[in-house]
Design goal:
About 5% of the residues have low confidence. The protein contains five helices and twelve strands.
């Protein structure tokens, strides 16, 4: 009978000692990773807290809409702007759609331009540039329309305004005639009875005095100044017309 002796135990390999500098580096890396995670957590908590505070501020009664301040017009026109704005007192001012407010106010026929801005803590400021009336005309149905210098109808009236000229141009030439009316100076406009535009040429009729022939709808400022100068120079001299088609060389007849 053969007897086998047990195998001697295998010696475990000896692990090389860890360099203290490597161990310190690993500890430092672990600590830095922990600090980064902590910073991320604090940033996240801070962002959530800020968002909560901001949301609370937006809907805070301190920032509710208290008034709509209208500049550029007053009285009934200012009330009309406030109504057109379509916002109620107590609304969250920071959540108001100022673009939508602008569109609603600009839809008013007598409004030219609108600028809407929030003014903390509780004011919505609406700055309005109105369309100024420069002339009137009678429609085919007999209605009297008041127009601005672009030929846009601002309003209707029960009777003509004696301080404004009448536009006698056809529907396709109303804009051109309105441009002439808009170019008239403050001293000249009350003297004008009517403005007629035909074939691209404008004729201005006065209450008393010669007819003013402007020619093409261009250089209107220069033509108005030339007309005023000629009217002053010819005061008391009867002439049928003053032609300022070339404003630097006016002609009378």
């Amino acid at each position: 009978m053969t007897t086998y002796a047990p195998a001697p135990p295998r010696a475990m390999p000896r692990r090389a000692p860890i360099d203290p500098r490597v161990r310190a580096r690993r500890v430092a890396v672990t600590r830095e990773a922990g600090r980064r995670r902590l910073r991320r957590l604090l940033w996240a908590l801070g962002a959530l807290g800020f968002a909560a505070v901001a949301a609370g501020a937006v809907v805070s009664p301190l920032l509710d809409l208290n008034q709509i301040a209208v500049t550029g017009v007053g009285g009934a026109h200012a009330d009309e702007v406030r109504a057109a704005a379509g916002v109620d007192a107590g609304a969250a001012l920071l959540l108001l759609d100022t673009g939508a407010v602008t569109d609603r106010v600009e839809a008013l026929p007598w409004v030219d331009e609108v600028n809407v801005a929030r003014q903390l803590p509780g004011t919505l400021r609406v700055e309005v540039t109105p369309r100024f009336p420069v002339a009137w005309r009678t429609t085919e149905t007999g209605e009297i329309e008041v127009l601005d210098s672009r030929g846009t109808v601002i309003s209707t009236a029960a009777a003509p305004d004696p301080a404004l000229p009448e536009l006698l141009a056809g529907s396709g030439r109303v804009g051109a005639a309105a441009r002439v009316a808009g170019a008239l100076s403050s001293p000249l406009r009350p003297q004008v009875v009517s403005i007629w535009v035909s074939d691209g040429n404008a004729v201005v009729t006065l209450h008393a005095g010669p007819e003013l022939r402007f020619g093409a709808i261009s250089d209107l400022g220069a033509k108005v100044r030339a007309s005023e100068a000629m009217l002053a120079e010819l005061a008391g001299t009867p002439v049928r017309y003053i032609d300022v088609t070339v404003p630097s060389a006016p002609v009378t007849g």
